[in-house]
Backbone:
């Protein structure tokens, strides 16, 4: 079962010195079931927790993390959207493109052509989310 306590929101100093490393290690060790539970329940956590999750998800170049970051960018609060965007910009364009659901990827290509940057994807996702 997914335990959100792997992200500590008590101290900003501790978070950026050590906590983020521990949280990233915990995410890497998560199996698919736990990760899916986290992806399904991240919106129920505090905004600080969500923001820190978006920060650490950009450290690993995996499809599951890019997919969750796109979801956070689409529907998260403003601060979470900003952090998710920054994390996505640190990932390869191909990985972010592949993280789009197939129907969205097809619509993006039909409406805007082949994306040439992560910013182009984020701009399209922003317009599409409204």
Residues:
């Amino acid at each position: 079962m997914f335990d959100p306590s792997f992200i500590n929101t008590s101290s900003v100093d501790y978070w950026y010195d050590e906590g983020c490393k521990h949280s990233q290690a915990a995410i890497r060790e998560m199996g698919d079931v736990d990760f899916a539970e986290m992806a399904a329940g991240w919106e129920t956590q505090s905004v600080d927790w969500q923001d820190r999750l978006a920060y650490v998800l950009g450290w690993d170049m995996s499809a599951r993390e890019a997919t969750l970051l796109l979801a956070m960018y689409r529907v998260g609060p403003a601060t979470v959207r900003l952090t998710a965007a920054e994390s996505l910009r640190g990932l390869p364009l191909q990985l972010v493109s592949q993280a789009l659901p197939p129907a969205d990827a097809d619509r993006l290509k039909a409406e805007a052509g082949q994306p040439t940057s992560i910013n182009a994807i984020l701009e399209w996702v922003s317009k599409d989310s409204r």
